[in-house]
Design a protein that fits this description.
The chain is α/β, with parallel strands linked by helices. 27% of the residues lie in helices and 24% in strands. A hairpin with a 5-residue loop joins strand 10 and strand 11. The longest helix has 16 residues. The radius of gyration is 19 Å and the shape is globular.
């Protein structure tokens, strides 16, 4: 059976999603002056609406959102239900002084099942998630000159072998950019929680969760299979420049009927 079929919902297919949306989005200011980054419009449709549509099309049933900055805007926009998708919220009161490691840690008590982790600044083609709805996977894209941030190395079996901070140093191996979508089995999530607890108890609340993943990959207490996002459009929106590039990849689609009406006017 083709696991990429829209009609396939195998026993281990994940139906819970966690969305981290606590950040201030300062690099998109003034667009984020009075609303969270995830409500920024990409060609007349917000990042959040696009992500929720992606999640619903993939058959997810539960969405947990970690909020912070302008949480009321997100809650008012989505409510507690969207079709068959139930939406729950966790508020991170320390969002101004913590990073995504703290947001992920906030979900430790509310999620007790396999799930897919999303950052709330991504726009993507829904079909890219076909292989991400199964446990212990990580979305990656072949490193390109215009990309920056955390990269990973991958072996011949598509297993992630190492995380690297930044991309400024010269390297000879093939590097892949992290797309910030991860899936977890319950056992992996429980192991991650233990490591997160250590970091938070030590006061490491202002680093990225990749620091935890990198440490666990290194000591082989966590394994991730890579999933390539090279073949369909996706973009991570941090700046106004990113927004402009994303709008090139996700243009406004005018329905055929509308086109006919315009032509006959």
């Amino acid at each position: 059976m083709n696991i990429n079929s829209d009609n396939y919902f195998g026993d281990n297919r994940i139906t819970t999603a966690l969305l981290l949306a606590a950040g201030i989005g300062s690099r998109l200011y003034p667009l984020t002056k009075s609303s969270p980054k995830c409500l920024t419009l990409v060609n007349e449709k917000s990042i959040l609406e696009r992500l929720v549509n992606n999640i619903k099309k993939q058959g997810f049933k539960r969405l947990v959102i970690v909020t912070g900055y302008q949480k009321e805007c997100i809650m008012e926009f989505l409510g507690s239900k969207s079709g068959d998708l139930t939406i729950e919220y966790i508020h991170s009161p320390l969002y101004r002084t913590t990073n995504n490691i703290y947001s992920l840690w906030m979900a430790r008590n509310i999620i007790n099942e396999p799930f897919v982790l999303f950052e709330s600044d991504l726009v993507l083609n829904t079909s890219l998630l076909d292989k991400m709805v199964f446990p212990d996977r990580m979305a990656v894209a072949l490193m390109q000159p215009w990309l920056n941030g955390t990269t990973v190395s991958i072996n011949s079996a598509n297993q992630v072998t190492q995380f690297q901070k930044g991309t400024t140093a010269a390297y000879s191996d093939i590097r892949y950019k992290t797309v910030n979508i991860y899936s977890f089995s319950l056992s992996s999530w429980q192991a991650v929680i233990k490591r997160l607890n250590q970091f938070i108890s030590e006061g490491s609340v202002n680093c990225y969760y990749e620091t935890v993943f990198a440490e666990m990959i290194s000591d082989e207490s966590f394994k991730l299979e890579s999933v390539s996002f090279d073949h369909k459009p996706w973009y991570e929106i941090d700046t106004v420049h990113d927004l402009a590039e994303a709008e090139k990849l996700f243009p406004i689609i005018i329905k055929k009927q509308a086109v006919l009406e315009i032509a006959s006017a």
